[in-house]
């Protein structure tokens, strides 16, 4: 679901909370989780570490069935580039990865050359596809 996060999914976000400095991270993963609160730090259940989360405003309505709220959570897996720069993601990035410098409340974020691990591939150049250098 996280690869298709749109601004409409984020209309009630008022703040992003960072649990660590994101300036030196090439990418972070983002996902929408169903959480029991609008504001509190969510419980973390993934393999890896949570690096941030979104806070929702008081106008956000919970699901009528579960009472939960859709909120963004930002995280990194143990095998991501920040821990293994020459590993699987030395180039490229997971589908849910975005450059953290492109994030803001209500802004989904985007991939950049930096988040993807370097310069564009020859196929991207041939097709005229460019990513921000952010």
Automatic annotation (TrEMBL):
Region Disordered: start-end pairs: 86-134
Pfam families named in the record: DUF6009
InterPro entries in the cross-refs: DUF6009 (IPR046051)
Organism: Nonomuraea fuscirosea
Top-level division of the source organism's lineage: Bacteria
Record protein name field: Transcription factor
């Amino acid at each position: 679901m996280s690869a298709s996060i749109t601004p409409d999914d984020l209309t009630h976000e008022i703040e992003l909370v960072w649990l660590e400095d994101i300036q030196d991270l090439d990418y972070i993963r983002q996902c929408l989780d169903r959480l029991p609160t609008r504001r509190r730090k969510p419980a973390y259940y993934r393999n890896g570490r949570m690096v941030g989360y979104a806070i929702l405003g008081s106008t956000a309505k919970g699901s009528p069935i579960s009472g939960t709220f859709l909120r963004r959570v930002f995280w990194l897996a143990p095998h991501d580039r920040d821990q293994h720069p020459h590993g699987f993601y030395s180039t490229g990035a997971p589908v849910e990865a975005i450059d953290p410098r492109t994030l803001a409340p209500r802004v989904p974020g985007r991939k950049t050359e930096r988040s993807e691990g370097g310069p564009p591939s020859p196929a991207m150049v041939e097709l005229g596809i460019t990513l921000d250098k952010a």
